[in-house]
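I can't quite decide. Please look over this sequence plus structure tokens:

:::
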Amino acid sequence: MPGKGPDKADCLYSRLLAEYPGLRVVHRLDQATSGLMVWALTREAQSHLGRQFETRQVKKSYQALISGCPEKESGEIRLKQRLDVENRPLQIVDPELGKESITHWQILERLPGGISRIQLNPHTGRTHQLRLHMAHINTPIIGDRLYGNGSDTSYGRMCLHACALSFTHPVEGTPLAFHSLPPF
């Protein structure tokens, strides 16, 4: 779906809708995140796929370049987060009013200059979850203008990519798995 404002009218949804009238949104990626997305061609497929996302049957994997190198090779981040109503669209950690967000992570590669390539597997799907989680442990995603140092433009973008999605076909019931290499 297009964001608010005429400058956001040209988006993937608008372009696909021209080719596939009746296309339905199943899930979203942040504007600056690249990678795999799922769309539905019918209301029934949208409903079926939406339930898979809601019940956490869809497996998602992302890769990111982060500023810094965590001491451990892998871990889990659990936070309660919510919208910062005074600074939309920022999310904040709020142990009392926030909703639980869980991300499993693993270092894939330690690069020169204090940068790490990391795999992120969200168990929940909160707004800006991966971005907030990485910033919370002091390893923000390279190029993240909201939660990190957006002035790092060495890659020309935010380095977060949806690399893998697996779910069940909404009509045939067969398992599907899709993969996409990150462009960074």
Q: What stands out?
A: The chain has a mean pLDDT of 93. The chain has three helices and ten strands. The helical segments are 12-19, 43-54, 129-136.
